[in-house]
Amino acid sequence: MQEKTTVNTDFEVRSLDTICVNESGLEHRWYHNLKYLLVGLLFGIVFVKSEVISWFRIQEMFRLQSFHMYGIIGSAIAVGMLSVWLIKRFKIKTIYGEPIVFHSKSFNKGQVYGGLLFGFGWALTGACPGPLFAQIGTGATVVVITLLSAIAGTWIYGLVRERLPH
């Protein structure tokens, strides 16, 4: 009689979804995080100067009245594709010498639902998660409500994640 064993496939299943795990075992002093603050500040300045945080630009995009936002998003996609290709082609490592690994992802209907929900929220609020902080920083304090809603949505997703189509 063969003994029935159960195999824990949790790792295999989770590697296919969109949860990101920092597998780095490196520990750094607190001031190593200042580089992220600097990059975030520069990113915010770029958002403001390129008008990515402008509610009017976002509305123009969703009403198909202007190419401005599509050009910026298309440029970001092109830069991302080129960067991933270069990382894979030349086996580029992190600045600490760790390998950069890209895991294959499979397409599923949950991504369509999530993308639609994200797009509706973006169109209604005039904000997506990246520029929220830049919008608040420029004085649009009403966007704090959108930020708190985004945090609440992320928290709720964490609660119901296992019951959603992945």
Structure in a nutshell:
The protein has 166 residues and is mainly alpha-helical. The chain has one domain (29-160).
Q: What topology emerges from the helices and strands here?
A:
Layout (H helix, E strand, L loop, with lengths): L9 H5 L19 H16 L5 H8 L5 H23 L18 H17 L3 H9 L5 H18 L6
Helix pairs in contact: 2-6, 6-7
Keywords: Membrane, Transmembrane, Transmembrane helix
Pfam family, one: DUF6691
InterPro entries: DUF6691
Task: List its traits.
0% strand; 7 helices; mainly alpha; 166 residues; globular
Verbal overview:
- The protein has 166 residues and is an all-alpha fold.
- It contains seven helices and no strands.
- It has one domain.
- It has helices at 10-14, 34-49, 55-62, 68-90, 109-125, 129-137, 143-160.
- Helix 2 packs across helix 6 (129-137) and helix 6 packs antiparallel against helix 7.
- It is globular.
Uncertain parts: none
Count of helix runs: 7
- Helical residue percent band: 55-70%
State the domain count: 1
The coarse overall form would be: globular
Mean pLDDT: 84
Q: What can be said about the biggest beta sheet?
A: none
Q: How many β-strands, per DSSP?
A: 0
How large, in whole angstroms, is the Cα Rg?
20 Å
SSE string, helices as H and strands as E:
HHHHHHH
The share of residues in extended strands comes to under 5%
Derived from helix and strand composition plus strand pairing, the structural class reads mainly alpha
Transmembrane segments: 36-56, 68-87, 112-134, 140-160
Keywords: Membrane, Transmembrane, Transmembrane helix
Pfam family, one: DUF6691
